[in-house]
Amino acid sequence: MNFAFSEEQEELRKSVRRFMEDKSPTSSVRAQMETQEGYDREVWDILNNQLGLCSLAIPEEFGGAGFGPLELTVVFEEMGRALFCGPYFSSVALGANAILQSDDEVAKADLLPSIASGETLVTLAITEGDGRWDLDGISTTATAIDSSWVINGEKRYVIDGSIADKIIVVARTTDGISMLVVESDAPNMTITPIVTLDSTRKMATIEFNGTPARLIGTQGASARAIETTLDLAGVALAAEQVGGASRCLEMAVDYAKSRIQFGRPIGSFQAIKHKCADVLLEVESAKSAAYYAAWAASEQNEEFEISAPLAKAFCSDAYFKAAAENIQIHGGIGFTWEHDAHLYFKRAKASQLLFGDSSYHRERLAQKIGL
């Protein structure tokens, strides 16, 4: 078993890193944080027209490049490293994956090509007022009226919900959990942007009051597809967290080498050495967990259900520790708005809670292995 990335995958990493360094420096990140949309449309067009990143893991028959989770892991890791502001995670890790996991070939042929080109932004709406990410928390309902459907309920923490062209809504029907797609300009729907700890990832609350929708797949048969989508999104988030943690380690080490105190670099003091060494261990272990989960996802084997919650739990804690220690090593300046350390800290904390916190995923892991 070889966990090393191929030459082509490493070339992809180099291309994405160059793009992020050019188009997503922290000055750009800060600028997009202050906007309502939260991303630069021109950068988004270049990302798709020149790099084709939205098409990466979509099958060729639906206008994609036909790659898989390993290539996405490379991309998400580099985006996490740069705190990239854009609807890539919502469209690719959530929306596209939900459609791909469905049994609706017509919906795939209809929706995926425009997602692959980046023309259509799509997201997934699951969580409700109780903040739960499991399907038992779904109370939003979808009702069939003649040959159409309407949705009633409220969804919270919808990533890029205010800018998505299409929203995949998880709702409860008479036969069970179903997926439906709602157009952003549909009537009887209210979309409200919300302020969160992490301004680099925009979220919204969406209220449905008899909102017309289109059913995806078989009514009441979407539970498995949604669970798999959430695991795939968790693996993508783990890769993003690895990228962010790696960047925190780089920032801390660079500062420890250059900051002079008592006539010597602070990196020469044992306490700082220990902090950096501990973070390095966390980052390297997180890489192993994320890469293993991505490999299992690409192989579509039985290990995926175990490795996905493991990666999400471990990488969440590793990123948070790396971001917190980065601030500690920087000292007073690390707490200021002007320094970038707090941007990573906020992303780390918000990501730790996204799709459920570490305790939730450890409990899922324990149940899956029979503990």
What would your notes on this structure say?
Strand 4 and strand 5 form a beta hairpin. It is built from eleven helices and nine strands. It has helices spanning 7-23, 26-33, 41-49, 69-82, 88-101, 105-116, 223-258, 270-299, 304-330, 341-353, 358-368, and strands at 122-125, 141-145, 148-159, 166-173, 176-183, 189-194, 203-216, 260-261, 264-265. The mean pLDDT is 94. The chain is α+β, with helices and mostly antiparallel strands and 371 residues long. Helix 7 runs parallel beside helix 9 (304-330) and helix 9 (304-330) packs antiparallel against helix 10. It folds into three domains: 7-116, Acyl-CoA dehydrogenase/oxidase, N-terminal domain (Butyryl-Coa Dehydrogenase, subunit A, domain 1), CATH 1.10.540.10; 122-220, Butyryl-CoA Dehydrogenase, subunit A, domain 2 (Beta Barrel); 224-368, Butyryl-CoA Dehydrogenase, subunit A, domain 3. The protein starts with 6 loop residues before the first helix and ends with a helix. The strands form two sheets. Strands 1, 2, 3, 4, 5, 6 and 7 form a seven-stranded mixed sheet that branches. The radius of gyration is 21 Å and the shape is globular.
* Beta-strand fraction estimate: 15-25%
Q: What is the molecular shape?
A: globular
Main β sheet profile? 7 strands, mixed
**Terminal Cα span:** 27 Å
Number of domains: 3
Structural class: alpha+beta
Helix content: 40-55%
How large is the count of helical segments? 11
The third-level CATH topology of the largest domain is Butyryl-CoA Dehydrogenase, subunit A, domain 3
The first-level CATH class of the largest domain is given as: Mainly Alpha
Average pLDDT, all residues:
94
- Parts with pLDDT < 50 across at least 5 consecutive residues: none
**CATH homology superfamily of the largest domain:** Butyryl-CoA Dehydrogenase, subunit A, domain 3
Number of strands: 9
Domain Acyl-CoA oxidase/dehydrogenase middle: 124-207
Pfam families: Acyl-CoA_dh_1, Acyl-CoA_dh_M, Acyl-CoA_dh_N
Enzyme class: oxidoreductase
Protein name: Acyl-CoA dehydrogenase
